[in-house]
Amino acid sequence: MQPARDVDTSFAAVLDRLRAAVSWPILCDRIHSCSLAQVDRVLARGSFSPGDLVALLSPAAAGRLDLLARRARAVTIQRFGRTILLYAPLYVSNHCMNQCIYCGFNVRNKLERHALSLDEAVQESGLLRSMGFRHVLLVSGQHEKYAQVDYLATLSARLRPAFASVAVEVKPLATDEYARLIASGVDGVTCYQETYHPATYADVHLGGPKRDFDWRLGTLERAATAGIRRIGLSPLYGLDDWRAEAVMAAHHAQYLGARFWKTQLGISFPRLRGFSGGFVPPRPLDDAGLVQLVCAFRLVFPDAHLVLSTREPAALRDHLMPLGITQMSAASRTAPFGYSQAHDAGEQFDVMDTRPAAEVAEAIRHAGYEPVWKDWDAAFLAA
Asked: Is 160 a domain residue?
């Protein structure tokens, strides 16, 4: 499965061609039927492509996990040294119009709904700064009234003097809207496609504007076209076969890296966790699979940042640090007022690693790595 080389073609068109060439069930079957001999032939190569994940993520490749881990660790140290960047999310609103059956913000869920005023958001951000954070990610649900572009632009402009990086994980926007956020100081956009399988996407998004698969799929293209410095992508592991999701995410990452080669690429590994609605992931990704996933992506994308959130428990995050992770969230709260009021009401998902930021930083040092609070200066925005 090779994506089109014409980087002027949208990824939606590329994905259509990939699906036409190999259907989702056939892709899953190829991955699961891959032999250990096929895995070894792929591992014998000096470099890797997204198509190689069919072998590297196969059940057979679990028999070479130690080798994958050693090679992933070596590549990470070679490209990034022994550093891990720390960041924190700041939830500015949990109001949402969507009916995503896996999300705590689902419009049908009964939970405390809040939207931070500009002053309240700045006050919450001050608590993050006092913990040491200089990279902040603004997060919100999708609503026609709350966390609109005007609000986000004004807030980011107010946060810029205090933070080296202000990124957003909000509803998909148009190119001109991203340009406005960039002008206000936003330098990063994260957007999870949730699932790359359109049928599954329709099954789990029952209502609201998020039902538009292609509009969401083009989010990072629009942000990069506007000139954003960093983009981050991932499926939400647990909705469909995680191996097939990862292969499609890798094609997406390759496409974005080729078309927007000046834009820094980040790849996350969010696994579905519990929330107040009680959704149970139909195709869960287990711990061993997550380790295999991180190692395989490091080999295929040696220069991409690999990001791990507090969805994962502390012990597992510590174990994954040397295997390819270069960015981690810490001390996260997934509800508005989460830092000042320190309660779980209205959260998007359950946080598994509840350690304070200083304790996470100490764990990084204990593993022989350096916790990084600021990896670049705002002056680069003017470069």
From this structure: yes
How large is the average pLDDT for residues 344-365?
Answer: 88
Q: How many structural domains is the chain composed of?
A: 1
- Residues forming a β-bridge with 93: 115, 140
**Beta partners for residue 91, in sequence order:** 139
Element (DSSP H or E) covering residue 216: helix 213-217
At 305, is the pLDDT very low, low, confident or very high (cuts 50, 70, 90)? very high
- Is 39 within 8 Å of 71 (Cβ atoms)? no
* Cα end-to-end distance, the chain, whole Å: 38
Distance, CA of 342 to CA of 147 (rounded, Å) = 22
How many CA atoms does the CB half-sphere of 315 hold within 13 Å? 1
Whether 242 is covered by a domain: the verdict is yes
Q: Which residue, 63, 11, 66, 76, is CA-closest to 300?
A: 76
Report pLDDT digits (tens) over 75-97.
999 999 999 999 999 999 999 99
Query: Does residue 288 belong to any structural domain of this protein?
Result: yes
Q: Could you tell me the CATH number of the domain that includes residue 247?
A: 3.20.20.70
Give the separation between CA 221 and CA 206, rounded to whole angstroms.
25
Confirm whether 356 is domain-assigned.
Answer: yes
Cβ neighbors of 349 (< 8 A, separation 6 or more) are 103, 104, 272, 273, 274, 275, 311, 334
Owning domain of residue 128: 64-382
What does the DSSP 8-state code read for residue 270? Answer: P
H-helix or E-strand spanning residue 309: none
Distance CA 99, CA 107 (A): 6
Task: Give CB contacts under 8 A, 24+ apart, made by 261-265.
Answer: 263/224, 263/228, 263/229, 263/230, 263/231, 264/229, 264/230, 264/231, 264/305, 265/230, 265/231, 265/232, 265/233, 265/301, 265/303, 265/304, 265/305
Tell me the two tokens of residue 30. 């190829």
- DSSP E strands, the chain: 83-93, 135-140, 165-169, 188-194, 230-235, 264-268, 305-308, 327-329, 370-372
- Model pLDDT for residues 370-381, shown as the tens digit of each residue: 999 986 555 444
Asked whether 282 and 238 are in contact (CB, 8 A), the reply is yes
Q: How do beta strands 135-140 and 230-235 pair? A: unpaired
- Quick one: average pLDDT of 255-275? 91
- Weakest mean pLDDT among 119-128, 201-210, 282-291, 342-351: 342-351
